[in-house]
Amino acid sequence: MSEAALIRAMVLGVSTGGFDALKRLLGALPGNFPVPILIVQHLSPETESAMAALLDDVSALRVKEADEGEIPVAGTVYLAPPNYHLQVEPDGRLSLSTDPPVQYARPSADVLFETAAAAHGPALAGIVLTGAGSDGSVGLRCVRERGGTVIVQDPSDAVCDTMPRSALQAVTPDHVVSLKDLPELLIRLTSAAPRALQPMDEHAQ
Amino acid sequence: MTEEEIQAIEIRLLLDGVFRAHGYDFRDYSEASLARRLRRWLSSSGCTSFSEAQGRLLRDPEFFQGMLGGITVNVTEMFRDPGFFQCLREQVVPHLKTYPFVKIWVAGCATGEEVYSMAILLEEEGLGERCRIYATDIDLKVLAIAEKGIYPLGALQHFTRNYQKGGGKAAFSDYYSARYDHAMLMPALRNRIVFASHNLAVDGDFGEMHMVLCRNVLIYFKAPLKERVLGLFNACVLPGGFLCLGIKESINGHAISPHFQEVVPRMRVYRKRYV
What is the ipTM of this complex? Predict the structure, then answer.
């Protein structure tokens, strides 16, 4: 079985330049994308977030702020609420916490990645995109240690390259991609199994 | 078996032991946060594994207190979610004013930021002379900090912005005096507050209340413990009284849900129905 067939969930961390990056990524993914995507985007804790609604408008996927206790489902993107950490419980449910910021960040990608890796092990893909700082690096190492797939945006393609660079120093990635090629990669990583089962599906486009 | 799986077993055993030896029940706390906090505490404890820490935890009360502090502290700020405090001023205070005396329970008050926020709000809304705030937490050490009402000066800037956005009616600096790098809140605010130890996981309810505030505490509990705590709150909130949860918490799907209605959508301010 390839890595592709295994993936059950994706976690993504992004900071500076994040809104545009997410608009492009989520705008390019199909509505039937087969796994949930959990996202930490750093925002000022004092801004009321309209981000979920804005991204929902441009994406065929459903984009919402994560609610505590909910079970993530395919075709849906969950954003960490401003000023909370987003976590994955061992049973896969989402939980929130107001624990102190990690490396000045709340939500923190490290917290999301670490808890998601514990819950999903090899069935997780962790993605770090453009951003300042080093959030996500420790988390990606957890993803790797538990056998998950590690994806980092090509630093030369990032609006702010420190987060991807830091990630590449922390862990050897499975894939380094530009934002333009990322949607296709994610589709390929998750669609091998279903496609193989339905080779005749005309709507698979 | 992986190291993580072994650690999960160790944590289970440790929580069982702690409950039997000390009566503190963390077995129904959400695992992701608790495991992260426990690991952080372990790395500062001088022990190399939870199994090693277990023996000391059972026998050494001081060592146990250290663990308790490490895993129960809830971090908060004054006037967190300014919109919520605005909503209290506009939608809740007018009802509270109809009572001759108002009793409010802040459950899981941690280091007290929310308690003093309430005290200031009630003062400004003219209820200062006729209210009492019961502030409880599981951890005696954080209660001692709450009682002092002294916070790092650096945090005050942020509190001030929150206060102003939340409908504050004075200059926030009227409420504290700064010295060196700390700010002490006006001692008079404390006159309305009773600090007490209370464990939501095992203790009973707290008498009749006009309002209960418990924000960002339930997110740390699993469903059965959440259910228990909401039951406690329902038992002590008077009909027509209020229950306030964190912005990302909800009573939906819980047994007490039919007894309350949400006053303002998304603010998690619930009013108890009369029938």
Answer: 0.89
